[in-house]
Amino acid sequence: MTFALNTASLNTLSLQDHALDGEAQRHAIECLLNCYLREYALPRNEANLHDQTHDLPMSLRQGNGRCISIALPSGRLVVRTERTSLLGRCHYNSAPYFKGNNQSWQPLQANELARLLCTPLSGAERVSEMLQQVANSLQITRTFLRHSRPANDEADSLLASEQHQLWGHALHPTPKSREGISHDDLLACSPEVGACFQLYWFKVDPTLLRHQGEDPRNTLSQLSGRDDAYPCHPWEVARVLADPLVKRAQQLGLIQYLGPLGQAMYPTSSVRTLYHPQMAYFLKFSMHVRLTNCVRKNAWYELDSAVALTRLLAPIMSELAIQQPGFLLMPEPSATSLDLSAFGTLEEAREVTECFGIVYRENLPLADREQYRPHVAMALFTWDQQDRSACRQHVQRYADNKGLSLEQATLNWLDAYAGQMLGGVLYCLFGQGVVLEPHLQNTVIGFAEDGLPCRVWIRDLEGTKLVPEIWPAARLSALDERTRSSVYYSAQKAWQRVGYCALVNNLGEAIFHLANGSDTLEQQLWARISDLLRAQSTRLGHPPELRELCAGGPFPSKENFMTRLLMRADREAGYTLLPSPLATPEEKKSA
Which Gene3D superfamilies does its entry note (predicted)? Predict the structure, then answer.
């Protein structure tokens, strides 16, 4: 995709900077178009994925790929695509062009495209906020591209995969938006630029400290070099220092601000969860910053639920080791915060609890990191900076090790990965009533010596929920009512979330990148998923959702674009039904 250079600005920006700006534009446009196509235009039959009309812009009449057109209330939008998947996921190789009534074709940049798509769908206030977030995401992407550094995969594969996800969520309209963060703070604390930073610490009277589950104070002492210190994230410290209860505790000598100190930690792909290779835990901090759709604070009841779910799911994790060896959950056995309820109202104290809230997630043992070379799935099923699918080099390495054709290696590679992931996720849902959230950022893949996937870890219990029919209130009697309600999903919502995360967000992107533009290979890969789903359905007693899916039923797809535009909470996101890419038994017989 190419964009015209603004020659007036060449005096202040290098040609390389313009090239990076073009890359940022291209990815922003791809996210917007793919979201709109999947959530709005295709379900309403307002898109033509193979436009062969003769009135196309001159620059689109030549070139590889095919043209897509979208009917809009104010005119027609066209763009050339290099590849289009069975789920309507596209990779574009031109700028989008728009032709209004009685007007000529005009190329669009990301902000113009966002305004064109959003304006007919919502009110001015919501559209204005969405446009600001699109602009914020675009500007931050430009910043990351200018300051990115090569990944050192050999030193620590997990850290490298956490810190080099430049593009983020491919089907989100604002994948890199971070509201209210200065340029310097952005560079200091963002994983995309390889950041490493100290925490901000407070000397705290021990009577104020509260912890649930395992006692993590040894880890805090290791990090700070003190036995009386408690941390917060650099992006949260200004809010903490301005809090009236914290000020009161400072005046009483119970809290003293120490500033940055101790060992530095690395931000992971979620930004607020931090990693140190020698620590027992990942630390998931609170940040009152909106990243993509949500303000990323640790709500007080989420501190409770993380530890409670770790305890409740312990028997299931033991069962998983038998039922699905190689599929593991990453426990969150501890949570901490400060209790300042003696100095204010319950609401004021909960604000402090959330600002200081930390969830502790077990780190992968060093032996596992060295043996399995783990990678976050989102870092594999994405584009590198040369516009190549990052997973292809892993498949090629496996093919070379085994002397296989690249096509056969790709099929084997997907079988190994999807078999582990689907086996564990579907067993948890239909066998145990546990709703995991295996989207790409929550999934970590480990590899055998020959390069074939052999381990899958699912992380982040914030997205883990329970189905009330299998987990009635009596089984959760240790939780208060608010915490208990936060971990429940209805059976319908449970399937929507699992089906979307596993099949669309995760495997949909995996197959898109593994197929590398080959329609034949893509169909073969989905056929393998079809076989895996049928086997899992038989194993689990043919639950209705899997029976319908295997018969050609649609895939549930979360509406990230409309959720953000309509300012809905992530929990209240709507779902679009996507036509199935799976071959039904009847279609297989006729093939």
Answer: 1.10.510.40, AcsD, thumb domain, helical bundle, AscD, thumb domain, four stranded beta-sheet
